[in-house]
Structure formats: C-alpha cells, structure tokens
Amino acid sequence: MQEGDRMVSTRPRDGKADPRAVRSADALLVRVTRASAGRTAAILLCAAAAAAASLALPAVLGLTLDLLLEGRPGAGRALAATVALTAAEVALGATVALLAGTVGARSTAWLRLRAIRRLLAAPPRSVSRFSPGDVATRLSVHATEAGAAPAAAAQVITAVLAPAGALVALFVIDPWIGLAFLLGLPALGLLLRSFARDSSDTVSRYQRVQSLLATRLTDALGGARAIAAAGTADEERARVLRPLGELGTEGRRMWSVHGSAMARSGVLMPLLITAVLAVGGFGLAEGRISVGDLLAVSRYAALAAGLGAVAGPLGALIRGRTAARRVNELVTVPPLTHGRRELPLGGTGTLELRGVGVALDGVWVLRGVDLCVPGGQTVAVVGRSGSGKSTLGAVAGRLTAPDEGEVRLDGVPLEAVAADVLRREVGYAFERPSLRGATVADAIASGVQTPSAERVRAAARAAGADDFVRALPRGYATALEEAPLSGGELQRLGLARAFAHAGRLMILDDATSSLDTATERQVDRALAREVRPGTRIVMAHRLSTAARADQVVWLEGGRVRAVRTHAELWRDPEYRAVFDCGDARGERVDR
Ligand SMILES: Nc1ncnc2c1ncn2[C@@H]1O[C@H](COP(=O)(O)OP(=O)(O)OP(=O)(O)O)[C@@H](O)[C@H]1O
C-alpha cells in the first residue's frame, strides 16, 4: 500500500434507499439545521411575516376600493396601508432570500467539514471504497444540495402558510367561495404526492451517475501516463463519457417530472381560480359580497393557488434529502479509535502481534499472525506480491485496526494508546510518499511535532536527500510544487520525514524501492548511526534488505510461513523463489 493510494471505485447501489440510511441522513439534516438554528428560525419568521403581509393585502385593497367607490372617509389611510404592506412583503421576501443563501452556505460548509474530518480519521481501508472522483462529487455537488435542504424545508413550511391563510380568508368572505376552492384541493394533493415520489427516485439515480462520471474522469487523469503509453486515449475518452447518455436520460426524466408537475398545476390552478371567481360573481350578483370583496377574492384565490408553487422548495428539499444520504455515507465511515494511554518511558519498541487477522472486503488477507519483534531489531517482511506485507505494516502501526487479535507496543495494546503518542512514536515511510507543506523543508517537518531546521537537515542527510535539495533553486525553501522530483528523490524526502520524526517504531513500506543499491546502502548505514534507535519493520522485495535485517518474517497468503534469519531461510528453494532466485543456490548475498 502506498501513502495517498488511489482509492477503489465503488459502484453505488441502485434502486430504493435503505430506510435506515434515510433515517440516518435525516438525522444529519436535523443536526445541520440545529447548527444554523437562529438563521433558520429567522427565515421562518420573516417568511411567516411576509405571508401575513400578503394575506392582509387583498383585504386592505378590497376595503380601499369599497371606500373609494362609496366615497367614505379613510380611503387615504387604507391606501397608505396598502403601500406599506406591499413594501413589507418585498423587503421580507428579499430578507428570506438572503438568509436562505447564508444558511445554505453555512450548512454546506458544516457538512463538508464533518465529512472531511471523518474521512481523515478513518482507517485508509474503510475509505478506499470511495474513489477520489466519488468523494469530490459528494463533497462539492451533493454537499451543496444537502446544505440547501434546511432553508428549503423552512420555505416549504412558509410556502404553505400563505395559501392556507388565503383559503381561510375565502371562507370568511363567503363559505361558498371557500368550498369551491376546497373541492379542487384533492387533485392538487395527488399531484404534489406523485411529484415528491417520482422526483426522489430520479434525483437519486442522477446523483449516482454524477459520481460515476467523476470517478472515471479522476481515474483517467491519475492514469494519464499509462493511457498515453498504451495509446488508448480514444477508448479511455469513450469509457469516461459513456455514463453521459445515462446522465442525460436521468436529467431529462428529472426535469420532465418537474415540468409535468408544473404543467398539471399550471392547468389546475387557473381552472380553480376561474371556478372561485365564478362563484364570487354569483355572490356579488346576489349581494352576498361587495365589489371590494370580489377584488379580495380574486387576490386570495391567486394566493391560495400559490400552493402549487410549493413544488419549487419541495423539489430542493427532496434533492437535498437524497444528496444528504450520499454525504452521510462519508460522515458515518467508522473512525479508527484511540485510547488515552502513554507508552512506557524508555521503551525500546518491542512489538507483539497475537493472533492478528485483517479482512478486506470480507476476505482474510492476514490471518493468525503471531509475532514478537524485540525492541531495537530490524525485521524484514518478505513475501510474494499480495501476500499481505503492507497490511501487516498497516496493522503494526495502527493505520488500520485488526479484525481479530491484538497488537502491543512495549506491552501496551495499540488501541489503548493516545493518537498523538502513537503518531509520535510510530513512523511510516511509503513507496510513493504524499508530501504536505509549502516548502521542501515544511514537507520534511510535517507531523505531530515540528522538528528544528537542524533536525530536518540531519534527517535529509541521513535519507540521502540533502545534496539534491540544496541543488534546488531555493534549497530547502523551494516551494514544493516547484521542486521537480524524480521517484527516487520523492522517496528520499518521504524517508527524511520519517527520520525527522523517528520514534520507537519505524515502518518502511517499500520505501527504498526506487533507490539505487548504493544509495540504499548509504541510507541504511545512516539509519543505523544517525537516526534515533528503535525497532524497524521493512517491507522488502530486495534480497539485500532481507539479508541485512536481524530477522525475516516470510509471509505467504496472509499467514506467517517462517520467522528466521535470511541465511537460515536461504536454504529453502521456495524462499529463494520469492526473490526469483529459485536456482540461485549459493548465490552471493548482497550484504
Ligand atoms: N482496500 C482493499 N480492499 C480489498 N482488498 C485489498 C485492499 N488492499 C489490499 N487488498 C488485498 O489484500 C491482499 C494483501 O495486500 P497487501 O497490499 O498487503 O499485499 P503486499 O504483500 O504488500 O503486496 P505488494 O508486494 O504487491 O505491495 C491482496 O490480495 C490485495 O489484493
């Protein structure tokens, strides 16, 4: 395994959502809403006040008309009230839009932060089921949609308030008019229900295809060199773009659900308003209502018909809930747990594995591993590709937790050790290190503790990196992205970082594979003389590394086949075959 390994693409499940996943995602939305509770409450209040203003407006307008027609006093004041209510409606509407934007942005940031924290706290093997493209889509597009859900929920509630109030007003003006409107409501209810159901399904499929596209694109970008070398750019482009057809289909389906709901409500609502106005006309003819009342009825009917407009925020809420499920999958990745214990002072790094097993994707890749590495020893872990060397390295330093058994360092179970103590005392170097920091010096220094500039240089010298770093345009102060690094130089910087933070246990996972033999030996000597002494676990494919180690752990199919010195093991042709030296009996060991 390498640091910054490419993650395996997941193929998200299709079809109906698991009810537990829906409940868990809804709980996440409740938590995100609580985080912006004040602003969300302000949206509700302002929108409720805007609804109240729109409800009062037709009554005041009708009264103004009646006063003007009948020449009664007070028409001026009624007109002023009309203007004030209109202004309040506009101002409150603008405030709601502003608050909804702010709540959306804050909620999105909240969700992203939680998801990123959890991804970084989880063991790499749990995170590996999400590809980088999938994670990027969930954190960008889907977090934004989920972040818009709290404001959309508030808007759905308030979008119902004004129509409900308008319906009451219609009944107050004339029960027959109210009844006429009420008769059309079941059709509207059915329409909204079918919109919510169809919309949720299509949105879920659309979001899945979005992730698939991003996954394929990032996979292709990551493997650009291999694609160019293989001359398969056209096939790759076709592979990346293949889901576009499905995206288009799902997109069209999504908008056709939306459009047909709009069209149906577009027919239903004018019909309802016409029916209401007809009944109002009879009421006027029969003297049950005044001309001003009829004007108010026409406005209230339009307001009540605005119930159809709830489809907008309802659609945003549905998209947000579906997107929250995808973000929630990141937020609920089980974290790697840590304890609070210190390691014994002066411990030499004795490592014990007792009955350790690790299962990946339901398959045991390491099983029944019993090992005891005395403090200060260097142990080489050898075995064919896929035999479990990296997994053993990961479990030995609690980058991952074992599924069975226990790992102890200086007698303390690793799961009981505090996270900062663990990362201070257990260091890693990988085949392809992922460097962090603004400059080359920062990259070497990055870790739970910041070593001095002198220690950074000493570590770089020990790792054989000092010469090429000093040859860079600004030496150690060269910006990391401006430092042209070969594979071997990158590895040496990764080693330098591990050396600068050396604790009682250091795990070198194929960390010297790109170094030439002379440099590797020089690094090995410096590691013995200039770096803090401790236990070293070295995953190796090279004969020379195994030969120099105090002991060799020979892995085969996830089990320990033997633990002996290299010289002892060398007599076994099957061991020699691991190094492709099956016939090399008596071959000089490169020490
Ligand atoms: N994230 C993962 N999900 C599922 N299986 C995995 C995962 N990572 C590794 N494996 C499998 O676990 C087994 C052990 O892998 P591991 O990387 O430990 O082997 P290795 O001996 O270090 O191999 P190599 O020498 O090629 O680096 C392999 O069969 C591999 O396919």
From TrEMBL:
A GO CC annotation given for this chain: plasma membrane
InterPro entries attached to this UniProt entry: AAA+_ATPase (IPR003593), ABC1_TM_dom (IPR011527), ABC1_TM_sf (IPR036640), ABC_transporter-like_ATP-bd (IPR003439), ABC_transporter-like_CS (IPR017871), P-loop_NTPase (IPR027417), Type_1_exporter (IPR039421)
Principal place of residence: membrane
Domain ABC transporter, residue spans: 351-582
Annotated ranges, domain ABC transmembrane type-1: 41-306
Sequence intervals crossing the membrane: 41-61, 81-105, 148-170, 176-196, 261-285, 297-318
Region Disordered, annotated ranges: 1-20
Membrane topology: Multi-pass membrane protein
An example Gene Ontology molecular-function term: ABC-type oligopeptide transporter activity
Keywords: ATP-binding, Membrane, Nucleotide-binding, Transmembrane, Transmembrane helix
Subcellular location, record wording: Cell membrane
Pfam families noted in UniProt: ABC_membrane (PF00664), ABC_tran (PF00005)
Protein name: ATP-binding cassette subfamily B protein
